Amino acid sequence: MGALRPWHIAVLVVVLILLFGAKRLPDAARSLGRSLRIIKAETKSLHDDDRDLAEKADAQAAYQPMPPQAGQQSYAQQQAHVQPPQQQPYAPPQAPQQPVIDPVQRVRDN
């Protein structure tokens, strides 16, 4: 029932020729082929990029830092002996030295 019969293809070709005309069909097929080639090349390059990233990730995962030599301390050991800077207690801002004069009162006094 769902099989594509030869007469289905013939009807499809006739409809395409009627819609687009015999002149435009070769150009349309050519541009469709170019588009498919571009899509194929881009998907291949994306796949290659993913493979390159996976190889780099594997190489970085295998990286292990060298152990410290005799007499040297590791970074974590050095940081364990460093004391944090002393913080000074919070001091609120100082109040202004001159008394605040109400502008309305000043106008009344003059």
Automatic annotation (TrEMBL):
Pfam families with a match to the protein in the record: TatA_B_E (PF02416)
Low complexity bias spans: 59-85
Keywords associated with the record: Cell membrane, Membrane, Protein transport, Translocation, Transmembrane, Transmembrane helix, Transport
Membrane topology: Single-pass membrane protein
Gene3D superfamilies: 1.20.5.3310
Bias-annotated ranges (Pro residues): 86-96
Location in or out of the cell: Cell membrane
UniProt biased composition (Basic and acidic residues): 42-58
Disordered, as annotated region: 42-110
Role description: Part of the twin-arginine translocation (Tat) system that transports large folded proteins containing a characteristic twin-arginine motif in their signal peptide across membranes. TatA could form the protein-conducting channel of the Tat system.
Binding partners and assembly: The Tat system comprises two distinct complexes: a TatABC complex, containing multiple copies of TatA, TatB and TatC subunits, and a separate TatA complex, containing only TatA subunits. Substrates initially bind to the TatABC complex, which probably triggers association of the separate TatA complex to form the active translocon.
Family from the record: Belongs to the TatA/E family.
Protein name: Sec-independent protein translocase protein TatA
Species this protein is from: Micromonospora rubida
Gene expressing this chain: tatA
